[in-house]
Request: fold
Amino acid sequence: MSAPCCAGQLACCCGTAACSLCCKCCPKIKQSTSTRFMYALYFILVTIICCVMMSTTVANEMKTHIPFYKQMCKGIQAGEMCEKLVGYSAVYKVCFGMACFFFSFFLFTIKINSSKSCRAYIHNGFWLVKLILLAAMCSGAFFIPDQDTFLNAWRYVGATGGFLFIAIQLILLVEFAHKWNKNWTAGANHKQMWNGLLALVTLILYSVAVAALVLMALFYTRSEGCMYNKVLIGVNGGLCLFVSLVAISPCVQNRQPHSGLLQSGVISCYVMYLTFSALSSKPPETILDENNQNITICVPEFSQGLHRDENLVTGLGTTILFGCILYSCLTSTTRASSEALRGIYATPETEVARCCFCCVPDGDADAEDHIEKRGGQTVIYDEKKGTVYSYAYFHFVFFLASLYVMMTVTHWFHYESAQIEKFFTGTWSIFWIKMVSCWVCVCLYLWTLIAPLCCPTREFSV
Reply:
């Protein structure tokens, strides 16, 4: 490792310099991207610790392989066998520290519009100091007095924050669907190719939704029993048909010419995904067969074989789930997303059709003048003229994500029996959370369609 790179890493950890890798082969990285990556890294680190705390397998392995384990636990006052460092209560405390960390930075970064302010320098640097601060907050939660009252109160705060995180993702999904359609419709005014792409993608989306509906009807229902599954599959399929008809109805088209089947196709696919996820999360139903033996019904037969290796399923599923959470956090913290939540959208005249319409050019050609080379990865300082995303909104989303992770890892309201090894064991709370999320998504999209009809004097732009 070269001396300039070492100096750069020291400036990153204890100063205001942006973090980068020490490999020259790595592509250029923007300062704004580097900052968000570092906060995401802290988030991943704490999330992994929470998963370890909920794992009985890891706890047993530690008892077996760590010398003087019992003496060490007594030395740090964590109980005779470190029981204070495992289970749902430990996860609550660690996530309390992480949530306080991000909420403190949310308050600290409110109204920052320039990256040259003192607060912006702290937001973009001093990573070692912030890591120590995060560790201190997570550790300090274990010394909160009256633990029972704290855990009961914090559970309701976590549930509220988790629901709000889900709501933000649903709002942004609806905004994504409208933005997609508007962007490609703008291109159709100049090239007929975009009309063909619109029709093709819409057909694919509805084909996926219909196929998912048919497969769920085949594998999650049977002639006797499975009433919950039958009703919910029918209701959600009917809702998808209903919003599709509303989207192309003449009264909606008169007020919103950009409304079409592409948006409803996106919503329909997401509704089918949530329905499948909810049915997979539902506790299994059992009946007695002709031999008076319990058999599981209303689930695919092949899924029972997939769950035999619980460690593999749990590890892979947990990685995918938290990868999706992290992706949601990062894509929800752009300036466009924060403006969308406040009802601010680009005007149709400024729309330029793109296949990957989410990747708007940054306009950073002038940023090439602000490049720093420290013997490793090249850093582009893209915030010389102003911030490219809302710092406060970024930290607020991660604050809500911390609460969502806490509730998800501890099985929401079935926390006492929660284990990471049983992460995908069905519970009614998870089932209804996913199902209600599905209905909220439909209601949000339906409101964007009928709002101009209900409030004709107001101007809506989606």
Q: What stands out?
A: Residues 305-309, 361-369 have pLDDT under 50 and may be disordered.
